[in-house]
Specification:
Belongs to the peptidase M13 family. With 650 residues, the chain is an alpha/beta fold. The protein has 24 helices and nine strands. Helix 18 crosses helix 20.
């Protein structure tokens, strides 16, 4: 039986007691160059490349098979062909967006602006506020519209104010000017400066990433009259009419950041309409740039790829074409992907793994010392109500409403956005679809959805090094087992623990238990605040931003290890490749976080990503006594943490 550990990646000159990440992955890191079209590269990227190649094969075979006109197969092939038709795209130049820009130029007032913003939202152009439909956090048996702060061309509000982003900010307005020049926007240089000033004002009204993690603070349910009173300058009726949405869609809304809507209203009232026209022209061009001629594509990549992430070269056109097909017709491709690449035995093995992970959680929640009996009963009830989704959905999405024209790339992209908008608005007033998936089967990722109390594992992540049906259990439990534990653990992290078993945002904790839990979370925040990644020396992790994912990692490790022990029953763990079962478990964990990043990309992610850098995630086992026992660490070792410094949540 294989150990499941990639020995070719191991750097034997580094002891696991000093740096688990470097020991498990050091040889791979030393010999691997980040591809020119990527900002970072690692396990997830390798699997995504494989999935991308599989999807390319599927798409090209479907396209070559002369499918019936109007069929889903024809739509897949035609959309891919439209994107690859560079000759047509080049010949059209800026033409596909000129009509939109003409509409922008004729906006006369705030109501006209809101109406056009609604129309452009149907085309996939985000405005200063982003509406989306989801289950109501306080009433998970119904759908409601949420209103999210938006309107920025940079990744986050901190880019407009923080000194560490000064160089990026300085490059932003010149980029906006160049893009506006490509469409002949009058006075592009001055317009770009006005865009920057307006976005800086909007950014000042944004809540930061840490505040936005608070599910209670970001939940303000308003009736329509209350929404109108909050920001009376915003003509929501014009916006809804532009989106082709009924007035009833906003009968009740959840405003995620009320302060931002007040700031937006003030900006609509005080900023001249000419400034808003400049801003909207920029966002139209920015949203559609990937589907225009090479001048737009290259300028867009130069800023968002090279400047923001340090990526030297844009991804090959076929890869971008595959991404577009997956965005517009993802489950249609996913159905074919599953038939070819996800055998039924893999799902059966995963369900057995999930069962052991849930049992390990049940044992942990039944005995964890900081949790009192009242909270414990609620936690166990939540665990019992939890739903796993493995591989692919039971019912595939219907794409009959999407019209694909292989001679009209951007038109098809717009229609795809409109179909998706209508699909989501169509949920309002209907029953909640608990079978819906928010990732395609060919996605290499996983998620926990607190509103439905579910974890979802697409087919594409269920392969080595996460899961290998031919390998020993230890590495599988350290890989996919700990990731399953991580996702279930989100149900009990600082955010997910505020939702109950049916997905309702409700305080089911006693005050004493919440205080004890918060003390553990605060200790983890302080621990990670002191850390920096080897990919961005001198830049510290934001422990408050990453605390939920860090709790997930610790929970996944603790529960994954316990589930591994459950899987052994009364049998001893075999020794393979000179490694004990516990050692293989922790090495399996470290190897799923194999990766490296360009400095610019690492710095960007530190600002916006709620996940810690991969090297720090690989070294999270330093909090577990089981890790120190497995490798015999001692004071002075690089991975050593004294018992009082270790944080154990589950």
């Amino acid at each position: 039986m294989r150990s499941g550990i990639d020995q070719d990646a191991v750097d034997a000159t580094v002891r696991p007691q000093d740096d688990l990440f470097a020991h498990a992955n050091g040889a791979w890191v030393a010999r691997t160059e980040i591809p020119d079209d990527r900002g970072r590269y690692g396990t997830f990227d390798l699997l995504r490349e494989a999935a991308e190649e599989h999807v390319r094969t599927i798409v090209e075979e479907v396209a070559a098979g002369s499918p019936a006109p109007g069929s889903v197969a024809a739509k897949v092939g035609d959309l891919y062909a439209a994107f690859l038709d560079e000759q047509t795209v080049e010949a059209l130049g800026a033409g596909p967006v000129l009509a939109d820009l003409e509409r922008v130029a004729h906006v006369q007032d705030a109501s006209g602006l809101l109406g056009l913003l609604g129309e452009l939202a149907r085309d996939g152009v985000p405005g200063p506020v982003l509406p989306f439909v989801n289950t109501d956090d306080r009433d998970p048996d119904r759908y409601v519209v949420y209103l999210e702060q938006a309107g920025l061309g940079l990744p986050d509000e901190s880019y407009y104010r923080a000194p560490e982003h000064a160089a990026t900010l300085a490059a932003y307005a010149p980029h906006v000017a160049r893009m506006l020049e490509l469409v002949g926007h009058p006075g592009a240089q001055a317009a770009a400066e006005r865009v920057l000033a307006l976005e800086t004002r909007l950014a000042a009204g944004h809540w930061d990433k840490v505040t936005n993690r608070d599910p209670v603070r970001t939940y303000t349910l308003l009736e329509r009259a209350e929404l109108d009173a909050l920001a009376p300058q915003v003509d929501w009726s014009a916006f809804l009419a532009g989106m082709h949405a009924p007035e009833a869609a906003f009968a009740h809304v959840v405003v995620r950041q009320p302060d931002y809507l007040r700031a937006l209203g003030a900006a609509l009232e005080e900023e001249p309409v000419e400034v808003w026209r400049d801003w909207l022209a920029w966002h139209v061009v920015h949203a559609h740039a990937p589907y225009l001629s090479s001048a737009f594509v290259e300028e867009n990549f130069d800023f968002y790829g090279r400047t923001l992430s340090g990526v030297p070269r844009i991804r090959a056109r076929w890869k971008r074409g595959v991404s577009l097909v997956e965005e517009a017709l993802g489950e249609a491709v996913g159905q074919l992907y599953v038939e070819r690449h996800f055998p039924p035995a893999a799902k059966e093995a995963m369900l057995e793994l999930v069962g052991n992970i849930v049992e390990a959680f049940r044992r942990s929640l039944s005995s964890v010392p900081w949790m009192g009996e009242t909270t414990r009963a609620e936690a166990l009830a939540k665990l019992e109500a939890f739903t796993p989704k493995i591989g692919y959905p039971d019912r595939w999405r219907d794409y009959s409403a999407l019209v694909v024209d292989r001679d009209d790339l951007l038109g098809t992209v717009r229609r795809a956005a409109a179909v998706e908008l209508d699909r989501n608005l169509g949920k309002l007033g209907g029953p909640v679809d608990r079978g819906e998936w928010f990732m395609t089967p060919q996605t290499v990722n996983a998620y926990y959805n607190p509103g439905m109390n579910e974890i979802v594992f697409p087919a594409a992540i269920l392969q080595p090094p996460f899961f290998d049906a031919e390998a020993d259990d230890a590495a599988n439990y350290g890989g996919i087992g700990a990731v399953i534990g991580h996702e279930i653990g989100h149900g009990f992290d600082d955010q997910g623990s505020q939702f109950d078993g049916r997905g309702e945002l409700r305080d089911w904790w006693t005050a004493q238990d919440r205080a004890r839990f918060q003390a553990l979370a605060d200790a983890l925040v302080a621990q990670f605040d002191r850390l920096e990644t080897r990919d961005a020396p001198g830049r510290k992790v934001n422990g408050a931003l990453t605390v939920g994912e860090n709790i997930g990692d610790l929970g996944g490790l603790t529960i994954g290890y316990s589930a591994y022990r459950i899987s052994l029953g009364q049998d001893p763990a075999p020794q393979l490749d000179g490694l004990t079962g516990p050692q293989r478990f922790f090495l399996g964990w470290a190897q799923i976080w194999r990766g490296k990043a360009r400095t610019a990309e690492a710095e960007r992610l530190l600002a916006i990503d709620p996940h810690s850098p991969t090297d720090l995630r690989a070294n999270a086992p330093r909090n577990l006594t089981e890790f120190h026992e497995a490798f015999g660490t001692r004071p002075g070792d690089g991975m050593w943490l004294s018992e009082e410094e270790r944080v154990r949540v589950f």
